C-alpha cells in the first residue's frame, strides 16, 4: 500500500491509450500526471481542445460479441475501460458498429479525467520525458502520443530509443453538412437490411456505371497534396486514401468502400456502385463519407465531390487530409510489457507501439497500466494469453517480421479446430469466430483470477 501512495506515473498524451491508462491507474490508487500539448501546438488533424479526440473516423468498429472488435471490447470492459464507457454514452446509430458523436465522446472522457482526484491534467508539451518525470517526481513514464507525436518528442525517441525513422501515413475522410445534400438523390439503408420508416443508419449515394467511371477518373487525375522531399509516405493498407485505391484498377473501389452488394435501392434495383454516408453525430446534421479518406487538395475535393449525385451544393465541415503516424518497431525496441529495453521505466502505449485502430490503441493503454501496477506492487510483468484479443495484439507487434500496424482480427489468434465436418463454409466461419471468442473470454477470466495485482 505504501508503494501505491508514494508512486507517481507520468503519461504523455491524452489520446485514447493515455486516457485509458491514466484512468485505470488512478482507479487503482496511483497518482497520475497526464500531459497533453495540443492546446498549445495543435496539429492540422486536431480540432478539439479536449482529450481522446478521434481524428479519423467516428467509428470504434463492431460490438458484435463474435467479431474480433467485439471480443476486444469485451476484454477491455474487464479492465474498466473509460474509453468504452464514454463511447457507449455518446453512441450514434450505426448498425452493429459503435460509432460516436466525437465531440460529446471527447468531452465526456475529458470531464472524467479532470474530475478524478488522482489525475493531474496538465496542458504542456514534452520534448524530454526523463527531465519532466524528475520535475514531477514520477517513477514511471508512459509515452502515448500515437500518430501525432510532436517533432521535439519524436526527435528524443529517435535519438535515445529507436535510432531510426518510425512512421507511416494515414488519411482522414471528409465530413459533409447534411442540410447541404439533396436527399432526393439518395436513400437510407443498412447493408443487407430492409429499411424501417427511414430508421436506417446509413445514407447511400447510388452511382450508375458512367458516374462511377467518371469518379474513378477524377480521383486518378486530381491534384494531390505532395509530400515533402524528406518524407517517404507508407500508408496503412486497411486505411488507404481513396485516390490510391482508384489507381489500382477501375473496379477496385466497387469491390471495397463502394461495394453495392446488399444496398438495393427502394425500387429493388442494385446500383452499379454506392457511396455510404454515416452519421457523424447524434443530431444527424453531419455525415462522414465512409472510406473516402484522401490526399486531394481542398480545391480538388470540392471539384470532384460536388459532381456526385446530391452533392451539387455540398458544404463540408471537414475536408479530407493526410497526417503522419508515428510508430516503433516494438519487437526490437520494447520488452513484452511494452517498456523500453534501453529505459525500463519508460513504457509506450497506443498506436505508437504498432497497433492500428481506436480500441486497439486504448487496449494498449490498459495493458501497460496493468503491467505498471504489477511492478509498483513488487510483482513481475505477466504476459497475457495469446488466445485473448489483447494478448494476440501484443504477440503480433512483438513477433511481426516487418513492423506493419494491424487492427485486431481473428487471424492474430491461435487457430480453432472444428470437429464437425458437415458444415457450409459460412457456417464453419461463424462457428470458428464463436469458439475463438468464447475461448478468449474464458482464458482472460482465468488469467485475471490467477494473477492478482496485489503482492
Task: Write up what this structure looks like.
- The structure is a single chain.
- The protein has 455 residues and is of the alpha/beta class.
- It folds into two domains: 2-166 and 327-450, 3-Layer(bba) Sandwich (FAD/NAD(P)-binding domain), CATH 3.50.50; 172-320, Elongation Factor Tu (Ef-tu), domain 3.
- It is 34% helix and 15% strand.
- The chain contains 14 helices and 16 strands.
- It has helices spanning 2-6, 16-27, 68-77, 82-89, 102-115, 129-135, 151-162, 209-221, 242-247, 298-305, 330-333, 358-376, 389-399, 425-450; strands spanning 8-12, 31-36, 59-62, 91-92, 97-100, 119-123, 140-143, 167-172, 175-177, 187-188, 202-207, 273-279, 286-289, 316-318, 321-326, 346-348.
- The strands form four sheets. A six-stranded antiparallel β-sheet has the order 10-11-12-13-9-14.
- The mean pLDDT is 89.
Task: Name the descriptors.
single chain; 455 residues; alpha/beta; FAD/NAD(P)-binding domain; Elongation Factor Tu (Ef-tu), domain 3; 6-stranded antiparallel beta sheet; 5-stranded parallel beta sheet; 14 helices; 34% helix; 15% strand
Amino acid at each position: 500500500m505504501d508503494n501505491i501512495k508514494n508512486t507517481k506515473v507520468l503519461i504523455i498524451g491524452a489520446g485514447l491509450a493515455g486516457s485509458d491508462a491514466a484512468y485505470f491507474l488512478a482507479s487503482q490508487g496511483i497518482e497520475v500526471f497526464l500531459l497533453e500539448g495540443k492546446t498549445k501546438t495543435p496539429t492540422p488533424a486536431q480540432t478539439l481542445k479536449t482529450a481522446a479526440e478521434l481524428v479519423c473516423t467516428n467509428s470504434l468498429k463492431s460490438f458484435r460479441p463474435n467479431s474480433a472488435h467485439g471480443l476486444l471490447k469485451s476484454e477491455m470492459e474487464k479492465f474498466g475501460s473509460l474509453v468504452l464507457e464514454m463511447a457507449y454514452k455518446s453512441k450514434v446509430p450505426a448498425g452493429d458498429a459503435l460509432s460516436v458523436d466525437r465531440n460529446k465522446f471527447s468531452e465526456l472522457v475529458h470531464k472524467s479525467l479532470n474530475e478524478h482526484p488522482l489525475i493531474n491534467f496538465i496542458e504542456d508539451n514534452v520534448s524530454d520525458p526523463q527531465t519532466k518525470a524528475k520535475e514531477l517526481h514520477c517513477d514511471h513514464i508512459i509515452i502515448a502520443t500515437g500518430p501525432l507525436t510532436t517533432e521535439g518528442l519524436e526527435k528524443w525517441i529517435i535519438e535515445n530509443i529507436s535510432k531510426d525513422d518510425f512512421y507511416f501515413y494515414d488519411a482522414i475522410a471528409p465530413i459533409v453538412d447534411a442540410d447541404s445534400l439533396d436527399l432526393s438523390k439518395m436513400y437510407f439503408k443498412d447493408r443487407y437490411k430492409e429499411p424501417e420508416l427511414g430508421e436506417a443508419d446509413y445514407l447511400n449515394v447510388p452511382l450508375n456505371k458512367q458516374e462511377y467511371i467518371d469518379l474513378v477518373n477524377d480521383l486518378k487525375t486530381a491534384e494531390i497534396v505532395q509530400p515533402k522531399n524528406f518524407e517517404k509516405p507508407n500508408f496503412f493498407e486497411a486505411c488507404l486514401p481513396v485516390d490510391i485505391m482508384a489507381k489500382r484498377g477501375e473496379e477496385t473501389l466497387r469491390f471495397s468502400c463502394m461495394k453495392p452488394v446488399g444496398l438495393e435501392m427502394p425500387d429493388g434495383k442494385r446500383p452499379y456502385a454506392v457511396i455510404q454516408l454515416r452519421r457523424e453525430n447524434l443530431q444527424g446534421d453531419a455525415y462522414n463519407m465512409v472510406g473516402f479518406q484522401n490526399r486531394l487538395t481542398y480545391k480538388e475535393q470540392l471539384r470532384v465531390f460536388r459532381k456526385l449525385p446530391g452533392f451539387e451544393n455540398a458544404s463540408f465541415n471537414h475536408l479530407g487530409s493526410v497526417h503522419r503516424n508515428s510508430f516503433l518497431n516494438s519487437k526490437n525496441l520494447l520488452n513484452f510489457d511494452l517498456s523500453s529495453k534501453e529505459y525500463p521505466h519508460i513504457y509506450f502505449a497506443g498506436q505508437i507501439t504498432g497497433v492500428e485502430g481506436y480500441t486497439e490503441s486504448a487496449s494498449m493503454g490498459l495493458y501497460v497500466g496493468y503491467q505498471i501496477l504489477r511492478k509498483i506492487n513488487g510483482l513481475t510483468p505477466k504476459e497475457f494469453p495469446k488466445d485473448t484479443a489483447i494478448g494476440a495484439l501484443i504477440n503480433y507487434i512483438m513477433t511481426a517480421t516487418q513492423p506493419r500496424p494491424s487492427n485486431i482480427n481473428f487471424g492474430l489468434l491461435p487457430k480453432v479446430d472444428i470437429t464437425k465436418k458437415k458444415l457450409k463454409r459460412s457456417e464453419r466461419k461463424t462457428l470458428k469466430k464463436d469458439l475463438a471468442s468464447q475461448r478468449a473470454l474464458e482464458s482472460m477470466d482465468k488469467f485475471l483470477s490467477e494473477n492478482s495485482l496485489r503482492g
